[in-house]
Amino acid sequence: MDTEQLNLLIPEDLPVQHELDQASKEQISLSLNLILRSLESDFAEQAIAQVDRALNILGTADISPCDSHPKGAKKHQEAQDYDNYFNVVHVKSNRPEISLVRSILVAYQRFILLGNSSDLLDAKNIKIQQQGFTTYVQLLSRVFDLSLN
Amino acid sequence: MQKINPLKIWQGFHWSFFISIQGLIISMLRFERSITLEDIQAAKVELNTSAKLMLAAAASMELAGEFSREEYDRYIRPTMMPPKVQSEDFSGLMFWDHAYLMVIWQKIQPIFKNMPQVLQSEQNKFISAYMVLSQSHKQVCSKFGGDEISSLRGSKATAIKTLNKFEQNRHKLISNL
Questions:
Q1: Per the count of CB atoms within 10 A, which of A13, A42, A89, B159 is most buried?
Q2: ipTM above 0.85?
């Protein structure tokens, strides 16, 4: 299923080093491993299926749209204007690890769908962006101290 | 395969770009932390990660612009002006995460200026990746008439001149010159 809105953690809440309990470690590891498997898939349908599986395993967190900006009301209004245009909502979350990985999955899902809808898109750039997703997953394995397959 | 709606391309690949920028924020903060802890090996890993995420951001920028000038003028540019948006100066500078990343670069500028010799190669790769990103942005902008028309921000300077200025300023932040 294609998600219409991208929820992003506010940048101030992005985890740099975040210890997880064992259950969360397993949940996040499974999801990140599924992203890696999806990136290796030759077929979009397979890739999408793995993303859907990862989203189910991840579940959801309690999120709320951020109602202020550290730089004040004007900046908040501007940020919201920009976000609205791109169907983005910046959120606060009680489980930042879940919200962060969800955001990658949702953006990646959209990326797969777009890539699969046209063979006119630059293949080299598609490959570089795929490598970007891989790099981000590897980064999060360090942030959450996980060993991925 | 049928042609995709340009607005879907524009918006969808911007999502990939946003994710790359968030990754870049995390890796840059981890790089700063590594330098503070004098963990050179970790600093290398994070600076290399930052470079790769910057290249991904460049790729998604170009992908976001994969349609014609005519399609941009007809379907995209009008949607970035009032009344479709609130701001007269609607532009990527309004993206919360991008602004936050620039604050980080300002903050760690002393690290870039005094980079340990052993990290010079990684810094050079990082700067090269930034130049690729800047070039991609200018390429897309130019494709859509950015060297003829004023920036979305409404200043008299053309969009390309504005981006050149940004490139100069940001290059200063991340280089050791």
A1: B159
A2: yes
